[in-house]
Amino acid sequence: MKRRLWLWAWFVLASLGTLAPHAESQTLFRRGDINGDGLFDAVAEAAYLSEALFGGGPAPQCADAADVNDDGLLDVTDILVVLQFGLVPGSPPIEAPYPDCGLDPTADSLGCDRYVTCASFAPPTEDSSYVLAVGDLV
């Protein structure tokens, strides 16, 4: 009886380990930011993923951000969805989290190991010493 209890306890603990979410799923990211620059430019994102998948280029910093259709795979479909969304007016939007930062709403094997988190991304600020005013040209 004691042996059954130990086997049952071991089975329950092993099952809990497989049901726990991956740590990568807790990383903030912006879907569609494939090249990791914090911006969305359809041509640049598609070119980066094309090079990564077919040209031997570097892998995306955040695989979840590159999985634009959120199907758990990085493939040519993601490239097509990026181009369609960015270049064809009225196209369906990119899957969440987009355009804001957020967590991946679906569980998959992809993660964000080297992504610059949205919390730390700040767009460049204007430096007044480099501003060219119209009056400066006269």
In short:
The chain is mainly α. It has 4 helices and no strands. The protein is globular.
Descriptive notes:
The protein has a domain at 24-119. The model is unreliable at 5-24 (pLDDT under 50). Helix 2 packs antiparallel against helix 4. It has 138 residues and is mostly helical. It starts with a helix and ends in a 51-residue tail after the last helix. It has helices spanning 2-19, 42-54, 63-66, 76-87. 24% of the residues are buried.
Q: Give the strand content.
A: under 5%
The outline comes out as: globular
Helix content: 25-40%
What's the alpha carbon Rg, rounded to whole Å?
Answer: 21 Å
Amino- and carboxy-terminal Cα gap: 94 Å
Helical segment count: 4
Encode the helix/strand succession as letters.
HHHH
Mean pLDDT: 77
Largest beta-sheet characterization: none
Uncertain ranges: 5-24
Work out the number of β strands: 0
- The chain-level structural class is mainly alpha
Labels describing this entry:
138 residues, 4 helices, mainly alpha, 34% helix
Any chance you could write out the topology, listing elements then pairs?
Blueprint: H1 2-19, H2 42-54, H3 63-66, H4 76-87
Helix pairs in contact: 2-4
